[in-house]
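call fold target=Citrate transporter-like domain-containing protein
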Amino acid sequence: MEQQAILAIGIFLLTYGMIISEKIHRTIVAMIGGVLMVALGIVDQESALHHIDFNTLGLLIGMMIIVSITAETGLFKYIALVAAKKAKGDPVRILVSLVLITAIGSAFLDNVTTVLLMVPVTFSITRQLRVNPVPFLITQILASNIGGTATLIGDPPNIMIGSAVKELTFMAFINNLAPIVAVIMAVTIPIFVFIFRKHIQTTPELKMSIMQIDEKEVIADRKLLVKSLSILGLTIIGFFLHQMLHLESATVALAGAFLLLLLTGEHSMEEAFTKVEWTTIFFFVGLFVLVSGLV
């Protein structure tokens, strides 16, 4: 038993060391670490499967499907362009707007997915203004981490904590963390502006070029937009009510995802499944099994 414990700790530390080194993709390392825990008899397969948090995985997959279909409508580009025009093309005000959009989006979608959606739009806007995109990207990455902390679904660690502690519902996260996140954002945004304001200056002519963009043109499919927003709205409402409905958050997310797939057809299903971040899903599977060897 003592030898198994030492072996388990050794595999765990080696796996994390390899993940930190980034010499091999983290998903491969995590899965190999998990497989070694089972193959060497440290944990049996049944126990390993029992330790995989399918609520976390289901929630991630469900939200990834919903967001991937919604992204096809051009909604996120539309929101970013509207914000840029509201800011009168001023880079500093645009930076603040995109930070807020990223933070709010990260709270209700998923922080990594939100950043991936915002980056192409950010490049498009900064290219139009001929300003350095790096300040925008740095602030959005930080905002996504801060904003994602506010809710149960905003960040994978939150999802895992919520799955492990049933008392921590969607509303519990919002009630306890959202006010703190709001304060942090209120403090952080002026710091962002102070640090980057001199690095993102542009000309009045380029500001006007932003104002001339027709944001309505980026909406690719209005019918799909209505369907996506309806299901996304219902899903978020479901998260608020999941404890009252006696449903796990994964059930809500997957129900929303497959209802949206039902409304959009088989083609959307194939497209949506290709955009699910399976490397992230299997990374978590590997970690769950890896940790099961230490329990």
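return ok
The chain has a mean pLDDT of 88. DSSP finds 15 helices and no strands in the chain.
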